[in-house]
Amino acid sequence: MNRRDGRTADMLRPVEIIPNTNAFAEGSCIIKCGATMVYITASVEDRVPPHVAEGCGWVTAEYNMLPRANRTRSRRDVSKLKLSGRSAEIQRLIGRSLRSAVDMEKLGPHCITVDCDVLQGDGGTRTASVTGGWVALKLACRKLLEAGLIDEDPVIHQVAAVSAGLVEEEALLDLQYYEDSGAQVDLNCVMNERGELIEIQGTGEGRAFTVLEQQRLVSLCQKGIQELMVKQTCALTGGAE
Amino acid sequence: MNRRDGRTADMLRPVEIIPNTNAFAEGSCIIKCGATMVYITASVEDRVPPHVAEGCGWVTAEYNMLPRANRTRSRRDVSKLKLSGRSAEIQRLIGRSLRSAVDMEKLGPHCITVDCDVLQGDGGTRTASVTGGWVALKLACRKLLEAGLIDEDPVIHQVAAVSAGLVEEEALLDLQYYEDSGAQVDLNCVMNERGELIEIQGTGEGRAFTVLEQQRLVSLCQKGIQELMVKQTCALTGGAE
Amino acid sequence: MNRRDGRTADMLRPVEIIPNTNAFAEGSCIIKCGATMVYITASVEDRVPPHVAEGCGWVTAEYNMLPRANRTRSRRDVSKLKLSGRSAEIQRLIGRSLRSAVDMEKLGPHCITVDCDVLQGDGGTRTASVTGGWVALKLACRKLLEAGLIDEDPVIHQVAAVSAGLVEEEALLDLQYYEDSGAQVDLNCVMNERGELIEIQGTGEGRAFTVLEQQRLVSLCQKGIQELMVKQTCALTGGAE
Amino acid sequence: MNRRDGRTADMLRPVEIIPNTNAFAEGSCIIKCGATMVYITASVEDRVPPHVAEGCGWVTAEYNMLPRANRTRSRRDVSKLKLSGRSAEIQRLIGRSLRSAVDMEKLGPHCITVDCDVLQGDGGTRTASVTGGWVALKLACRKLLEAGLIDEDPVIHQVAAVSAGLVEEEALLDLQYYEDSGAQVDLNCVMNERGELIEIQGTGEGRAFTVLEQQRLVSLCQKGIQELMVKQTCALTGGAE
Amino acid sequence: MNRRDGRTADMLRPVEIIPNTNAFAEGSCIIKCGATMVYITASVEDRVPPHVAEGCGWVTAEYNMLPRANRTRSRRDVSKLKLSGRSAEIQRLIGRSLRSAVDMEKLGPHCITVDCDVLQGDGGTRTASVTGGWVALKLACRKLLEAGLIDEDPVIHQVAAVSAGLVEEEALLDLQYYEDSGAQVDLNCVMNERGELIEIQGTGEGRAFTVLEQQRLVSLCQKGIQELMVKQTCALTGGAE
Amino acid sequence: MNRRDGRTADMLRPVEIIPNTNAFAEGSCIIKCGATMVYITASVEDRVPPHVAEGCGWVTAEYNMLPRANRTRSRRDVSKLKLSGRSAEIQRLIGRSLRSAVDMEKLGPHCITVDCDVLQGDGGTRTASVTGGWVALKLACRKLLEAGLIDEDPVIHQVAAVSAGLVEEEALLDLQYYEDSGAQVDLNCVMNERGELIEIQGTGEGRAFTVLEQQRLVSLCQKGIQELMVKQTCALTGGAE
Predict the structure, then answer these.
(1) Rounded CA Rg of chain B
(2) Which of A217, B168, B170, F227 is the most buried (most CB within 10 A)?
(3) Which long-range contacts (CB under 8 A, 24 or more apart) does B168-172 make?
């Protein structure tokens, strides 16, 4: 199968992670994966939610699409007085993924909120949010360290995410919108630096899929995530002053 | 590891599916998996949502926990004026899973809403909702067939779901609450009658998990789902008048 | 007039009260009055609302119809972001009725919330909720007593409720849906064990009614409530382990 | 018992009904019962709710307390994003009461909304709203008649309402706030011009009440309502230009 | 241009300010400007919002139109679950204007909420709310002084407001509805007793306006506000017992 | 007075308008005024709101601050289930301002929604939204023209906006956050290409201001707006492909 943008089946779209894009947030970046573009800030606050153990920190995420992130304009959630079910589902995924990267004791009594606002969506906005969200989180923790507010870096794992899917019976990495909307199977993986899974979410939209097919898609993701982690590391190295 | 209720690692909890528990709904059942108990109705309406293709049908789901489904009472969503993020996430999963079982053209221009109200929750409420939801959906379609409103059974696949998880490094099938809340990894599978995946959702709550561990958990689910499908079939056979 | 189910004018529908139907709630029951079926839990919490006098307890109620409790499916309140006016009106009635049964000083600083979720509605759901709600409340207080958390039973009155109405000029006890929807006059009484009124709510839907007619309906209710109290007592005696 | 304002047990507070207080509404009045003061408008619209039979009309009511209607300021419902349960209960009562006065076929396809905004509340706001609401409704129908939009007056009954209660074991008519808040029993009656009941709502706040006591309170209300109807008629006669 | 009510271009509509119209509020009035009529209460509470400096007071305002304040009935904000944008904008203006009149240190730790409920709207409801709101605020502070709760009058400025506009190229003072809805330019001024501006809000609805035209409109407002301040003073002098 | 960034009293901050920043929207730009940065899209839809005259078009605006646009993180409006009053006020201003630039008949039956999402706020976000919003609007209309969907450019005026204020008794143009928050008077002007006013909004936060002072501030704005219009024109010329 020929992909519209000429990629081979196991290629990522061009990825760009621009760090420190917000003057106020403790950590921030813009992540671009092809035409998908997410504006991310990580904000540190000194109080944690009530369910958090004494002395520990917390990480949470919020996800939102700007009204014209898509091909047609969508109404804002606030005008409907409810968070869309899709946004609720996605921001829970991002929050769980980023928490898996952090030692909450080392984070001390700080809460970091990672806001992911999709400026432009062309498929893969949730995985881009995880990948970019980790960079913003890391930058925020670096600032806490530099300010002497914490003693050790609480980010003990590197975390990134990507999707893969079956399109016309072929396994493809990093689906963009036109592929995603026609995919038979769509699978998102969040992994750490050892290639271990943190989250896996797969859906047979068009047909069910075998365990073997599922494994093939996970392998594709594993390859893509390795490459994304190089991009993350570059952003953290090159983007720092 | 010894499970509190004496089960082996690959055993389901006792399952009971009581069909036709609601006098008005086209399809209904109560499903009990151990102490988990979900009240399910499938309601047929003659109009479909605007996005559905001309002449086709639709299946959707709603999920709700009654205030005292849990060990402590929770406030109703309506008193908070918002559907909880967790409920939103779960009802989207149930809806996608049940839609995969149905040929929407055969369903004609009918919309079936499957309401899953958890009377008692002891782990596995979302997978019980899928398993019981399929029974209610099947019963509703049977009624449509008997009434001559559709010509062929639109339920072209059998669908059931179960969870498995890593608890103290051991892979266990069908986690109940005390296991689930302490699980390192929690994975839900929705499968069809051929053992193919429809949905897979895995989360490393306590630690990341290897691809091999993930495959082990999928195998456990596959075994459990086969047994659940026998229960579904019994309910449909024995429960009919 | 012949009633569809063969009852005489002053007969109740078959009543069944199944106690202890929820494993977690301090008190619970299912009450069935004909085809009407309400799932009730009484939950004890240790804090009381701010308006309650120091050292006293409180009793409150919430009422909700499941989406397919009726002949056609209704949208959930949460999807409309508002509690229906009808539910608001009914849960205030249930709350006032149950509070009249309780000595708030003896209840100590506990708040009991009685949740009435209608699984199936065939007329008389609000009165069934009061009658069953009293059983759940009594069971919850019994548990508090057994646990030594209170010294004396705070339930100092027995409370039950029933409706009566004028249908085709005839006074009938305990209207079911098809009677209720065609009733000229509909009257609900909540009474205590001495046959005294706690709440009376009468509405002339089809026509106004004389004071004499009103008295006739109250007498019918008085008779029905005596019988319901026998059922309540049975449930409390037989249902206890 | 001596009432603070020197009334005998069966006396109403001074009542004043000022018609045509709003320049735009088809019908309007201000009703004062002692210090209770309600601003009422009846608005005619040309479309009826979907549940209304072809060619028929409809009457509905909305009830609201202004923030400083009471001794202390209350937050507006809109700031809490929900109609208070109390307002919901009351506006349903007003709507049912006023509908009982109207022949919906004669009202043709018009919907009349009666808005009752309490400027000052000193007990009896719901019954004052019914009594004044009927005057506004009558005025609106008169305007429809004068404009030739309907052929016959659809207001076929006169409707008014008042409360009575047991205070320190004595039956008193038309409770004002300080009596109401200390009442043992509080009962509201809505009646028509023949002294027949349209609505009866009684609550034993402090203690249960016997059927005999209930009858005594209804008799008091009957007397008060006769006097209120004289006031209504005066307002309609004197207030017209 | 001839104005419908015979006013010259620089004349106000007849203004009436009736003080002490609410028995419970610390300050209150009804203000009528032609057919515009606003019911205003000023309520004192003993706690201030969290952002207020220790020991200081606060003044805030809420603005609401009753459903039939206008030529056609509007739905209540609560039924739409949101404060209208227009109301939000207006109540912020009223709040800022009234705060400019007050020395917050002298107000001590009291919060005064000025509620402006429009009974009838015929143009100029926001400026009438400011003008009448100041009277209610002054009365409330007088009550605080008389009760010895504060030592000095915190109302250190007199504040009033009016609109002017360009209608058919002519500058007119105090637009009523039929003028306002056809105005090319509409400008509201809030001023103090020295003729200084506190707020200015001008909008070119039909066309842009020159700086010179803007100055002409401000002059008209200045003249009108002087006259309104005489009315305010009368209301405070004559209206007190 | 020395301004922190070395500007003279009548200097704008550095302005940058980057056009075509969104791949899907018919018009878009990012506008930067110093550290203030707003992401703007103009979306064309084929239906207009019901109040619009047959055959005419409409322009509306929405304004939103991203959670970390400010020095501290703010909760999203959707989590509070209400649009903030401030956002409501601002988006009404932007909408009115942009509508003044457009001939609605020439816009034909299209509705253009201008979404202004503040990525970073350092004072002047509402005026930057107007200035940038006009560019996005112009670009969207250009696309409509190029696509032959309209015959003539409906943008008949150029519109831009800026603020000025009194800070420590000195009149300064284009306040940034630290100046704005300490300003005695804050005034926003929206003007067209002829230097005529479309909107003027001035507030005496710290003290009242004379008519003369107001005129001085308007003059400053006039100067700044001329410079902003050069930037707008550059963006439209240079930014087009």
Answers:
(1) 18
(2) A217
(3) B168/B1, B170/B1, B170/B9, B171/B9, B171/B213, B171/B216, B171/B217, B171/B220, B172/B1, B172/B3, B172/B9, B172/B220
Residue numbers in F near A86 (CB within 8 A): none
CA distance D28 to E30: 18
Probe site for chain A from F62, F113, F119 (most A CB atoms < 10 A): F119
What are the pLDDT digits (tens) for C57-107? 999 999 999 999 999 999 988 777 677 889 989 999 999 999 999 999 999
Put simply, whether A86 touches F (Cβ < 8 Å) is no
- Average pLDDT, consecutive stretches of 10 residues, N- to C-terminus, chain C (241 residues): 90 97 98 98 94 94 96 86 84 96 96 98 97 98 97 97 96 94 94 97 92 96 98 84 36
Q: Which residues contact B66 (CB under 8 A, 6 or more apart)?
A: B117, B118, B119, C39, C41, C115, C117
Minimum Cα–Cα distance from B84: chain C residue: C78
Q: Which residues make beta-bridge pairs with D59?
A: D112
* Identity of the amino acid at F138: K
- The sign one gets for the Cα dihedral F80, F83, F89, F93 is positive
Cα–Cα nearest to A92, from B85, B207, F76, B94: B85
Read off the pLDDT of residues B48-63 as tens digits, 9 standing for 90 and up.
999 999 999 999 999 9
> Is the CB of residue C102 less than 8 Å from the CB of residue C42?
no
* Dist CA C199 CA D204 (whole Å): 6
Query: Is B45 buried (19+), middle (13-18) or exposed (0-12) by CB count in 10 A?
Result: middle
Tell me the nearest-neighbour CA distance from A100 into chain B, angstroms: 7
Q: Measured between CB atoms, does D226 come within 8 Å of chain C?
A: no
D73 touches chain E (CB under 8 A): yes
- State both tokens at B204: 């490393």
Could you tell me the pTM of the whole model? 0.92
User: What pairs with residue F187 in β-bridges?
Assistant: F164, F202
Chain A residues with CB under 8 Å of B89 CB are: 85, 88-89, 92
Do the chains contact at F88 and E91, CB–CB below 8 Å? no
- Chain C residues closer than 8 Å to D204 by CB: 100, 196-199
In angstroms, the Cα distances linking B47 to B43, B91, B138, B143 are 12, 20, 19, 17
Asked if E64 is an interface residue toward chain D (Cβ–Cβ < 8 A), one would say yes
Q: What is the 3-state secondary structure (H, E, C) of chain C?
A: CCCCCCCCCCCCCCEEEEECCCCCCCEEEEEEECCEEEEEEEEEECCCCCCCCCCCCEEEEEEEECCCCCCCCCCCHHHHCCCCHHHHHHHHHHHHHHHCCECCCCCCCCEEEEEEEEEECCCCHHHHHHHHHHHHHHHHHHHHHHCCCCCCCCECCCEEEEEEEEECCEEEECCCHHHHCCCCEEEEEEEECCCCEEEEEEEECCCCECHHHHHHHHHHHHHHHHHHHHHHHHHHHHCCC
Considering only CB atoms, which chain F residues are within 8 Å of E166?
none
Whether D84 has its CB under 8 Å from any CB of chain E: the answer is no
Interface predicted TM-score (ipTM): 0.94
Nearest to B223 by CA among A211, A198, A185, A213: A211
As a whole number of angstroms, the longest Cα–Cα distance in chain B is 55
Closest to D206 in 3D by CA, of D175, D164, D162, D168: D168
